[in-house]
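Box 3.1 A note on notation
Throughout this textbook, protein chains are presented in two layers. The first layer is the amino acid sequence; the second is a token string describing backbone geometry. Keep the layers aligned when reading.
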Amino acid sequence: MNATVPHDRPERAYDVVLFGATGFVGALTAEYLAAHAPAGCRWALAGRDTAKLERLRERLASIDPACARLPLLRADAQDPAAVRELAASTRVLATTVGPYIWYGAELVAACAEAGTDYVDLTGEPEFVDRMYVEHDARARETGARIVHACGFDSIPADLGAYFTVRQLPRGVPLAVDGFMRSNAIFSGGTLASALTALSRGPQTLAAARERRLHEPRLLGRRARGPVGVPRFSRETGTWAMPLPSLDPRIVARSAAALERYGPDFRYRHYASVKHLPVAVGGTAALGATVALAQVPPARRWLMNRWEPGQGPDAERRARSWFTVRFVGEGGGRRVFTEVSGGDPGYGETAKMLAESALCLAHDALPEVAGQLTTAVAMGDALIARLQKAGITFRVADAR
């Protein structure tokens, strides 16, 4: 992608506002910003509980004494007036408050109206599709860049596929498969978002159908993110189990927007499992979770076992890791690439969200607006930031 100067915007009080800063991932994102935001970056913490924000600010001051002066902004995600004021105060609004289908819509609406860039951590297809239908057109008019899924959902898949495509020939059909491995565990907030999304199957299908009515047809090209089938992958030497996540849809939308993905592009996303019994057990567990999510008492019981705001401690996060290996083919060439890092759900997700916000606030980027993917909105600039921050993007082999 060709980089240009950032959008011309009216001067705002802040470059980045972090909303939901006192939640588990929100606090980790705040800690990352305290340690890594560039000199002169004007950022603030936002949430609905001022006392919790004050306690977080005290902790951040131990990382950087200048954080003792961080502005604290009080707002409730479901208060339209407060959210509009918040969006109008900043160039970029980053939010960690989920489930987004419950707590995200007012923030997206306010950012689209104010011409404010927006980033979140959602993995909820229904939310993303509804926000496209309701706010993409207005965001294009105001210049707002609405970028969902700026954490482990779906940066490794989206930027990993983008990185892989750049190693393949131009102008030919391309196919990429991603194989994900990790040893991480999840927080209460992540579980609540996942169970909410799983419980809303009919609403998710309806939102996808409505989006298709509004999206322009892709003329002369094709971009797909189909669900694969379970299989043994000779490329990785593991069992490949299809992952029913947002990632393939995000990758396909990047491919639809960028001609570099070729005239006919296909992406499939898998969990990579070494042993067949583990793969079968994981599939059974996923099926049971989907079934339980449909029953309100069972869903509440699962959510109550891990309250939002709780998550793995620092020692457990330090032992966590992820790897996504990609196999890309096209034009007689085959490449093997890899994206890898540490704790995916928390440490690296906080890093990805923070660097996405900083990228939108400070980097020279393509002149695009509306609902976008990370590959379309930030592409090479965000990859460079993440590499500098310790996330690996590499070519393992090419033939």
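DSSP finds 16 helices and 15 strands in the chain. The chain has a mean pLDDT of 88.
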